[in-house]
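Protein details
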Amino acid sequence: MVMVAARFEQVAEEVTGRTAELLGAPVAVTDERGVVIASSEPRAVGLPWHLVATARDSTCVRVPIRLDAQAGEVIVAEPASGEAISPRLTQALVELVVNQTAVVARLPNQHELKNKFIHDLLRGPIGDEASILREGQILGMDLTRPRAVILIDAAAYILAPAAAGRPGQAEGSAPGRTDALGPPRNGEARIRRRAQLVIASVVGFFALPNDTICAYIGDGEVAVLKASSTQDLVAWADGDDGPDQLSPSWANMVALKRAGAALLTRLRHDTSAAINVGIGRYHPGIRGLACSYEDARAALSLGRRFHGHNQVHCLDGLGIAAFVGVSDERTKIDLATHLLRPLDHEPELLETLDVFFAEDCCSSSTANRLSIHRNTLSYRLDKIASLTGLDPRRFDEAVQIRLALVLRSLRNTPS
């Protein structure tokens, strides 16, 4: 229904402009309530027709207009020059313009095709990969490159009421036009305009040639299929990041999160609204994009709940929430393996952790059982914290390490 209303508004604006140009006369389109939704005289938009009609409009030609479930009227007034226009000719011309415009409006445009393609790619069942690659190519997308999903929650901006736009900025309209002079913004049309403004910010930030890898997927969310190879993220990489060669999914995550943080700053500036960003890992293949999307969606959902808004959320930054809130066991095992990978070649530290947890995190009994001095134990625990970023002497982080150890042990355990 909302798409129908948006299409009706689009047709009304197009019919108004073309008819006014052809006849050289004032033209307006009203909805079924008699409110002007498009007019060659902008100040009339948003007002009931009877309040803006003048004496010379009493002889205007009124032509009914219907598009799907929406109805209204095209009203053609007498030209200011006083030139007479045949009512019959006027009606025939208006009907022709309406019919032509309606046919074009029903055709899906490039944005709609792209949005549906990416939506289905991330959320729907994946069919033949070769066909998907070809369809993506037709839409201008290169899906052969490694890509990870950046999921932007811009609902506070995209789904906000009309009055909640940026201070001093019209509702997605042309520069200089204000809401007071513009039409009452149809909900779906406003949502599409705002979503496109968010996408434009993303395109500008990443210096993309176009917006083909970005899509509005509903519920105030924009998905970005970000190229995630080392070369693509060089602007946000650091020589000390130390790429994880054993796990390609996590290899460039640090740089990807830096890019996400910088993008968040840009989007908050451009929208003046609360924004949340979820980062998904890279997964190989076409089907990997849906997996990356699930990562980003889980991180976004849990991150908003446990860590608040205006942040970048990723699975490895959620703490205990990731192990509790993520339902997919494979994802949790992968996360545990990633968090503990710095200890893979540190058997002494792993043994220390096993004993430390077995002794209920008691330093003195752990040191006695390991036959080491308490200062040596303290050194080992400091080294664990330095390598993993998790301190086993802090409760939440100790629970996270313990859960990671248990989950990692399932990696090679037969089911």
